Amino acid sequence: MILSDKTVRLVRKAGTLRVSRRRSDYLWGALFTVPSIILILAFKYWPLCFGIFNSLRAWAGTEPHYVGLANYARMLSDPMVHQTFLNALKTALTLPAWILLPMVVAFLVYQRTPAWQFFRVVFFLPYTISPVIVGLIWRQILHVQGPLNALVRAISAGALSPAWLGDKHLVLWTIDAVVLWSIFGFGIVTYLAGMATIEEEIFDAAAIDGAGFWTRLARIVVPMLRPVMGYWAIICTAGMLVWMFPYLHSMTRGGPGFASMLPDYLVYTVAFTFMEPGYGTAIGLVLFLFVAVISGFQVRYMYLSGTKR
């Protein structure tokens, strides 16, 4: 079949219009991304580059001068830095509890345990409170003469009265528990969203086979929610390393001594209390790399778990 010249011209014109329309769509799409790119460059990459530059300087009064890698070399022999990163590793030991406890409670809520609607609200409510307010509330509760110790003294007949925020052996674990209490509801909601993707027939079949709560949790929920667990592990790791500042500032300010000092609060202390912004920025960049490496491994594990599923 031979097309006429007029038909060929119309087909070519239609093709040209489609290409022109496609290019126009690409152009408009690119233009709409420009504001986002500008914001990312202005508020993420520019501060990062400026921070790297500042980490190579030291301040003598108000005048900075270039010191090269001296700030980073100083960190290697600074016991204060060693202590804070050791504290961060100690809090990381509680990561399994941060991951598993919300999942267990979320599964109880998912199974519509009696009063599940009430507990769903109660568990999520602390997450809606500002971290600073949470810290101030718990500082009063955990005071030596606070309500918690009043209960402990009543139970122990006055034999026990722990200094939850004053004992260097207790303070770090106490703050860790407070932060977990604060974000616990977010973890429950995250796991509930993941459980909603599991077909209910699987749980029904397991119940018919006689599988109990813990068997269903271990054999069904955990294997099928590995990507969600990986995502929540990333959130918890970031929380332990870079989101503890408001709790520390409102509860202990890193004390007693450096017993509850964590890297993010050390950056603030060095830069704005000791007035060494260059050294504080260097610590912050090392913390950034530390978190990035750990998160990178976790993201890879989450991706591999998702592909296996």
Description:
With 309 residues, the protein is an all-alpha fold. It has two domains: 5-54; 70-308, MetI-like (MetI-like fold, Orthogonal Bundle), CATH 1.10.3720.10. It has helices at residues 5-54, 70-76, 79-92, 95-110, 116-124, 131-141, 147-155, 171-195, 200-208, 213-224, 226-242, 245-251, 263-273, 277-308; strands spanning 57-60, 63-66. A two-stranded antiparallel sheet has the order 1-2. Strand 1 and strand 2 (63-66) form a beta hairpin. Helix 8 packs antiparallel against helix 11 (226-242). It starts with a helix and ends with a helix.
> How many strands?
2
How far apart the termini lie comes to: 52 Å
Strand order of the largest sheet: 1-2
Structural domain count: 2
Please state the average pLDDT score: 86
The largest sheet, given as strand count, sense and whether it forms a barrel, is: 2 strands, antiparallel
Q: Considering DSSP H and I runs of 4 or more, what fraction of the residues is helical?
A: over 70%
